[in-house]
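okkk here we go again. third time trying to get the flavin-adenine dinucleotide bound version out, last two times i messed up the smiles copy paste (missing a bracket lol). double checked this time i swear
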Amino acid sequence: MIDSRHIEALGQLLGGKGLLTAPADMASYETGARYDKGRAAFVARPASTQEASATVAYCVRNGIALVPQSGNTGLVSGSTPDASGSQGILSLDRLTAVFDLDRVNRTVTAGAGLRLSDVNQRLEQAGLFFPIDLGADPRLGGMIATNTGGSRFLRYGDVRRNTLGLTVVLADEAGTVLELGSGLRKNNTGVDWKQLFIGTSGAFGIVTECVLNLEPLPRQTATAFLVPSSPDRVPDLLVAMEEALGSYLSAFEGMSRNAVSAALAHVPALRNPFQGGHVPDFVILAEICRTSPPRDGEQPLDAVLEEVLAGLWEREDTPLADAFIGPPHEMWALRHGLSEGVKHSGRLIAFDLSFRRGDIMRFLDHMKAEMPRRFENVTICDFGHIGDGGVHFNLVVPADDPRLADAGFEGALRAWVFQIAVEDFGGSYSAEHAIGRKNQVFYDRHTPDEIRRLAAGLKAITSPGPLGSVTF
Ligand SMILES: Cc1cc2nc3c(=O)[nH]c(=O)nc-3n(C[C@H](O)[C@H](O)[C@H](O)COP(=O)(O)OP(=O)(O)OC[C@H]3O[C@@H](n4cnc5c(N)ncnc54)[C@H](O)[C@@H]3O)c2cc1C
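finally!!
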């Protein structure tokens, strides 16, 4: 329990809207996107960098631990407090006032509390967007702390590649505010400190503002579902599409039959697009786009895609078994419905893995053979960003399976999968969700001692106060 004098002092710093302590008001902040439920001492909601700084300084001076939270869509228990009731949540959801578009520089300076959908809605008029695309609607601060990847990484990269500057509050006794970079695209005048705060789960400091690179909105888009002639030909298909389409190719997403079937079963708005309703073993959603408006005499994008697919189809050793072009919004609706579908198929144990692109299908093949031998009655419902080596390796266990009552079951399953992914296949156990409480044990296990010492040293210099749900 937190001393009431701290609640009083924080209330004075933040005002009525800025501090929540009633259980009903805190409930949604204490509950994560997937099965998390913690207990908070309070929810602090600063409305400016200065208020964030004052709150953090007070908490550090009084030994009060803070967990930063933005959109609370993270999937590794990073944004919610533990069960102790002693941690405060530092929500950035009121940091929405700053939005300063620089049309010529193609950047926006924005508050960390803005939602991705709000940012992109406001940019639409200018024909621009922040090019990170995913099936959730996070806030900018959380996207920076997790270095979100998403479905168009292949073309635009991750948040890191699109972040030019940050304002950060450090968890020290002064609540030091750092301005790291501005709208400069080139600046090599020393250490690029902003990188320390991207993808590090909020442990080194709290992001309150950012300067983001923007891209021209796609004006023409075409999508197709591609069925590979066999799963091991998926890498050939990817390389062939890249060779034929160059920078037009903006997404190459893989979906297993189990994941697609789960989405079709549990997301009522979806339509089964496959002939006779037969979902293939593995299917790719490929997208191409142009940012220029259609011009007279120019070949439409659907025709470009059709021509490329026909060329692949005619090859003697074609990696394609089938392909069809369809409306982008319908095809993406299926892709974005996969998370929801697998979540409702039983108890979901989700992994966010990445590999060198050529190893993904080998890994999946290996796991399909090994899983029933090692863990019976666990269904693999994988999908992922094949174009950038990412796999959402989802395992579904029947909701009434007695093993779920055993606290050791999920841990053993996770340890086994990570061991194979990291040690045998040279992959990453967290491709794009960063590290939260869920991944702490695997950070400790799979990070070399010298790297852990270095990270702990940097943490002690930047934010020595108790901050975040990860111990570096
Ligand atoms: C349906 C669904 C689909 C998803 N698909 C993808 C996907 O394709 N690709 C992908 O990368 N992710 C995906 N995610 C995961 C999630 O949406 C991203 O990790 C997202 O970027 C998290 O942002 P958030 O605002 O929700 O952050 P939160 O969940 O609030 O926080 C995430 C982490 O960042 C820290 N943090 C939050 N705000 C700040 C701040 N201002 N300063 C410092 N630290 C902070 C938190 O302490 C926590 O550790 C998906 C999630 C869902 C539910």
